[in-house]
Fold this sequence. Notes:
single chain; alpha/beta; Rossmann fold; five-stranded parallel β-sheet; two-stranded antiparallel sheet; 9 strands; 37% helix; globular; binds NADP nicotinamide-adenine-dinucleotide phosphate
Amino acid sequence: xxxxxxxxxxxxxxxxxxxxxAGHDIRYGSRTPEKSVREALDGAEAxxxxxxxxxxxxFARDHADELTGxxxxxxxxxxxxxxxxxxxxxxxxxxxxRYARAFNALGWENFADPVFDGVVxxxxxxxxxxxxxxxxRLIRDVGLNPVYLGPGQHDLxxxxxxxxxxxxxxxxxxxxxxxxxx
Length: 182
Ligand SMILES: NC(=O)c1ccc[n+]([C@@H]2O[C@H](COP(=O)([O-])OP(=O)(O)OC[C@H]3O[C@@H](n4cnc5c(N)ncnc54)[C@H](OP(=O)(O)O)[C@@H]3O)[C@@H](O)[C@H]2O)c1
């Protein structure tokens, strides 16, 4: 698939490299002139958003036209009051985008290395039914096992993010930590 990865930091680079290794055509976008967001979005079938959460609103507003008809997988988290996800911003500012939420609730290290003593980590995600196949394919190609929570389950994924932080940082278990449904 042709995939635009917006953000070239920890999360964008890690997901982009894993998906490129699985055979996808990855175009990165960031604020550097040589990685234009607009060029990355042009012709992409799916978009992964890996920029700071506070920048997502502007991203949705500025690129609403290019996002129309595309699956937009939001991995970004806003920290502070209110939701970590940006579902409402996309609904208002880029209503043609098909919003999905994945890759938000585990530290990036676990996308680089998702196998724990031979057990593949699960990744919870939310998307419309019509986009399940696409999102699941990308999760599998990063190397995790997708677990579908249904459409619109963004607050539940925010809660999972809080749980991950509480275990990894609050309890000091470390960032090499993921979830598994048994
Ligand atoms: N780190 C994790 O473990 C992790 C896990 C899950 C989700 N997330 C989420 O993923 C997002 C990125 O985290 P990160 O750790 O990868 O951050 P990071 O390493 O600081 O990278 C952020 C990237 O976003 C780009 N960027 C910043 N503002 C932008 C804008 N307005 N438009 C386009 N690109 C922009 C930056 O590039 P330039 O400065 O060159 O433009 C940089 O490539 C955050 O929302 C975070 O909550 C992170």
